[in-house]
Design a protein that fits this description.
The protein is mainly α. It has one domain. The strands form two sheets. Strands 1-4 form a two-stranded antiparallel sheet.
Length: 369
């Protein structure tokens, strides 16, 4: 008998809610966005429509199809990252985007998907092994290290340090659901702490050598991150002023009281909070938390290791970007150019998350006899 499928309604409703919040916030930010960028509300709607088309097509396949082609997808994305260094226009000193018919395309956003798919395949195969010995564990860690290293170097050269950090976060999250023994995590954290100790020693006490090795550009990026609380940037000051003055109910829709750069992207939460105040911001954060918990609960389904890895990797980057974006908007974390998933304007970022939602819909869909 042919089997049909039902789509997880909660995820579908959540995407609709995200769309409404995104459009309302971008519209309210439009008064401070250059008209040269075009109608961002319309562009965001088009990106959502494209994302929905991707979802409709992806849910007709099982995730096993994408795991099978994971290495090919990963390889294509690595080539796209390499091509940026030679073909992409320089925008604010970075070569992060291809410009195609007026639409920007950022390969690093889709590298997140590639890494999650490759990790899901590798760890799925690893976790299904009945006997796991030291040799197999070392082989796994070496393979994952190489897979992480290649796109990290290419993305760092753009330069886009924020995306490299996201790659690392994906890797950490997926490793925690593997069958690696605890000693490897002790070794891993010891290695990271040692690396950071050496790194910051050279940054603080051997600055000339640090600059000679990594360059002035990276040094000043690090300086901006480390000394962010001492800065007096207009972005952060105006964002915090708008949020703190918004009160319980905010200034109202389309009444953002003060200008701050990147209002439709990095600082979209500042726009939303100033419009809808403490109450609106609290409702949004509660909804985001409930959405995250729902995704986490999907790991309790009777699913294979590859699907479980995919869910954990997706949760990891969504949760990290939510925390980073909201915290940097209110001055709790440094400004890193991280967007708020599903809400900030940005075609590549939005499309990457909608594609990941399609994979999760494949996991959560229920068979009907």
């Amino acid at each position: 008998m042919k089997k049909s499928y039902s789509i997880d309604r909660f995820i579908v409703i959540a995407i609709v809610i995200f769309y409404i919040i995104s459009i309302v916030s971008i519209k309210s930010a439009s008064m401070y966005i250059s008209s040269s960028l075009g109608n961002l509300v319309l562009k965001q709607s088009i990106w959502y429509l494209i994302g929905i088309i991707f979802i409709i097509n992806i849910v007709h396949f099982n995730n096993s199809f994408f795991y099978k082609w994971a290495y090919v997808i990963y390889g294509i994305n690595c080539l796209l990252l390499l091509g940026l260094l030679f073909l992409a226009p320089s925008i604010n000193g970075s070569k992060c985007w291809y410009n195609i018919f007026g639409f920007s395309f950022q390969p690093s956003e889709f590298m997140k998907i590639s890494l999650i798919l490759v990790y899901s395949r590798i760890l799925g195969e690893f976790n299904r092994k009945r006997k796991i010995d030291l040799k197999k564990e070392i082989a796994l860690l070496f393979k994952i290290f190489i897979i992480l290293l290649i796109p990290s170097i290419l993305t760092f050269l753009e330069p886009d340090t924020g995306s490299v950090l996201i790659y690392v976060i994906i890797t950490f999250f997926v490793l925690f659901v593997s069958k690696l023994r605890i000693r490897w995590f002790v070794v891993l954290f010891t290695g990271i702490l040692s690396f950071l100790a050496i790194f910051f020693y050279f940054y603080f006490y051997q600055q000339d050598l640090f600059i000679n090795i990594l360059g002035n550009n990276f040094f000043y990026r690090m300086d901006r991150l480390i000394n962010w609380q001492n800065g007096s940037g207009m972005q952060l000051e105006n964002s915090m002023a708008a949020i703190s003055a918004s009160g319980i109910l905010g200034f109202g829709f389309n009444k953002t009281p003060i200008y701050f750069p990147e209002a439709g992207t990095d600082f979209i939460f500042g726009v939303f909070a100033s419009n809808f105040g403490f109450l609106g911001s609290s409702i949004l954060i509660i909804f985001l938390t409930f959405f995250n918990i729902y995704l986490i609960n999907l790991t309790n389904l009777k699913i294979n290791y590859s699907d479980k890895t995919l869910i954990i990797g997706t949760i990891g980057i969504i949760f990290y970007q939510q925390i980073q974006n909201i915290a940097m908007t209110i001055g709790l974390l440094p400004i890193t150019g991280i967007t708020l998933p599903f809400i900030s304007y940005g075609g590549s970022s939005l499309l990457s998350y909608l594609i990941l939602m399609a994979f999760i819909l494949n996991i959560s869909k229920k068979r009907i006899p």
